[in-house]
Amino acid sequence: MNDMRLSERDVDMTDVKIAARGVQVFYGDNHAIKDVDVNIVDKTVTAFIGPSGCGKSTFLRCINRMNDTIPIARVEGEILIDAEDIYDRRVDPVQLRAKVGMVFQKPNPFPKSIYDNVAYGPKIHGLAKDKADLDAIVEDSLRKAALWDEVKDRLDAAGTGLSGGQQQRLCIARAVATSPEILLMDEPCSALDPIATDQVENLIHDLRRNFSVVIVTHSMSQASRVSQKTAYFHLGELVEYDDTAEIFTNPKDERTENYITGRIG
Amino acid sequence: MTDATAPAPGARSRVGQGSLLRQDTRTIKRNAAENRFRIYGLTAICIGILMLVFLLTSILSNGLSSFRQTTIQVPVTLVADRLDPEGNRDPAEMARVTTFGYAPLLRDALVGTIADAGIETELDAGDIADIVSDESVAQLRNFVLANPDLLGQTMPVEVLASGRIDGFFKGRVTYATAELDQNISPEQLRLAEALKAEGLLATGFNFDFFTAPDASVTRPEAAGLGVAILGSLYMMLVVLALALPIGVAASIYLEEFAPQNRFTDLVEVNISNLAAVPSIVFGILGLAVFINFAGLPQSAPIVGGLVLTLMTLPTIIIATRAALKAVPPSIRDAALGVGASKMQTVFHHVLPLAMPGILTGTIIGLAQALGETAPLLLIGMVAFVREYPDAPWEGGLFDPATALPVQIYNFTQRSDPAFVERASGAIIVLLLFLFLMNLAAILLRRRFERRW
């Protein structure tokens, strides 16, 4: 049945933004990701769920090659973004990361002003022609991150002085400032309270219009709220990948069912 | 049926079975042990403070007097035909007249002054002249050679009193010790007191101590730290210019870029070991490499600076790496995540955050280098240097100089008790510099930390 679905999906390849083919990740001798194939569709929110240590964050970090910074990590297989293999030797990860933005688990604004936080990416990539242009990018990004109204009067204040939820939205603004096509979010709400979480989730809904969003989450309710597609990872394997509604109401695999009904994980 | 008061089978004994108002034996023992430990710690600190107080008192009581100096006002007539026999006012010609030509002038002036003041003394002219430092004659000669036009006039000159007279007004020399001393007699001391009463002899602040070069063993009153301070300053410049960039570059490479392999492990272990190498070993290395092999001059601040750079590098590298390590990895992730290159990440984000730690490490390294003596002994900086080195841009780094700690060592080698005062004074100056550097480290750290 899974094979049927895969072949079905291959039909509408036009919409596929990220395609992983036989991805294996090793941390030293530890085989962290085992043979993952997945097609992530453009302009959707895709959630990766699964118990701790199942490899969902590892796989997410493969998509913008953040695993390159870990000396013992080794990636095999191929990940295609717009049909280009990002692990090709000719690909510079720096260029890739401008195209694939990332938001981390803990809000990690730079210890600089709010303005500088958002302006940093456009500056180093040379996206702004002049100061006015940069101002426009900063305002646009902060608006996209639903933070503009709260900080427009204090753009010179330190980014680290904001509340946790504001900091995380600042990080989202920083990530969208370089106009990426894909936004990776690694448990973006795990350090936030319910109100801030709600704000970020609403934001993810809006972001979908412009970006393909891939979000790793521990909260199944969050996955069901924000995503259209859900992938369930278990011990490094991609167990099931389908429409979110389908996964939560009619899981095909016993392991998925156990997880979403709370029997494991 | 189980008895309610009997402990249930398998129940463990509990803490505080009795009243909470009474301590059980275990608690009493524990508290006693804690109290004992506190007393040990307090004793250790008290011993430390006591030693420090003792050290400071001894240095200050011996050394503070070196910041004051006794001088005598004498109007000296610069007799033209004795100082310039050729009569052409050419300093090159006049330089043929040695200090022996000047000594009678000063002696006559002194005898005349004493007679004018109406002071009665049984001393002959030679003994009267001995209350003035030998250095004064040389100072007078240098003054005349620099201003040949003043010949023939009578100039009020302020000359240094001899070391014994200076010591008398600082309480080091008394009439009792003068009886036993062949360099000074009680009669000379009485003369000095009389001069002071006339206002011709005064003890004032000793600027020359900070600017004058070292003086010979018999002229402690003229010995100063000028050359030593300049030499130390030059060496610190060399150390700062070399050790900071090399150390920071090496640390950044090792911490952020280097692959983790056996080679980098070896480098790391060796850096840690280098920090513990006795400094005299660096002196031998400097002697072999910089002087014997590279042919750099002896006693030069450049060689001292290079040796101290080698010695300071491990300290700076270790401090810098610790500071870089302390920057949270989330900052690196954030920068890489928006597409900064490795170098941009380091220079835009990691380095500014690590800067306070790096600066602190550097200044502590510099302070360590400033007080270092052993390696300098081996590269000839222990020499007796009276000439000031030129400015650094005029090649002064290659001129002979001494350094503060070496100067202290030099002073302590000399027999005249007046050098005890000079050595202690030099120690105070050195400590003051160290204190200022540490203060700078603290202020810089505060300043940088407040930015975020």
TrEMBL record, chain A:
- The answer on whether this UniProt entry bears the keyword Thylakoid reads no
| ABC transporter domain mapped to chain residues | 11-260
Q: Per its record, what are the GO molecular function terms?
A: ATP binding; ATP hydrolysis activity; phosphate transmembrane transporter activity
Q: What is its EC number?
A: 3.6.3.27
InterPro entries noted in UniProt: AAA+_ATPase, ABC_transporter-like_ATP-bd, ABC_transporter-like_CS, P-loop_NTPase, PstB-like
Biological process (GO) annotations held by this record are:
phosphate ion transmembrane transport
Keywords, alphabetical: ATP-binding, Hydrolase, Nucleotide-binding, Phosphate transport, Transport
Q: Which GO terms describe its cellular component?
A: membrane
The main enzyme category here is hydrolase
Q: Pfam families recorded for this chain?
A: ABC_tran (PF00005)
UniProt-listed PANTHER family? ABC TRANSPORTER I FAMILY MEMBER 17
Under which name does UniProt file this protein?
PstB protein
Organism this protein belongs to: Jannaschia aquimarina
Tell me the organism's taxonomic lineage.
Bacteria, Pseudomonadati, Pseudomonadota, Alphaproteobacteria, Rhodobacterales
UniProtKB/TrEMBL annotation, chain B:
Q: Which parts of the chain span the membrane according to its record? A: 39-60, 233-254, 274-296, 302-324, 350-371, 423-444
A GO BP term here is: phosphate ion transmembrane transport
Which is an annotated GO molecular function term of this record?
A: phosphate transmembrane transporter activity
GO CC aspect terms? plasma membrane
Residue ranges of every copy of the ABC transmembrane type-1 domain listed in the record = 229-441
Membrane topology summary: Multi-pass membrane protein
Q: Which Gene3D superfamilies match?
A: MetI-like (1.10.3720.10)
- Pfam (any one): BPD_transp_1
List, alphabetically, the SUPFAM superfamilies matched. MetI-like
Q: Which terms are listed as keywords in the entry?
A: Cell membrane, Membrane, Transmembrane, Transmembrane helix, Transport
Cited InterPro entries:
DUF3333 (IPR024573), MetI-like (IPR000515), MetI-like_sf (IPR035906), Phosphate_PstA (IPR005672)
UniProt lists the family membership as follows: Belongs to the binding-protein-dependent transport system permease family. CysTW subfamily.
Q: What is this protein called?
A: Phosphate transport system permease protein PstA
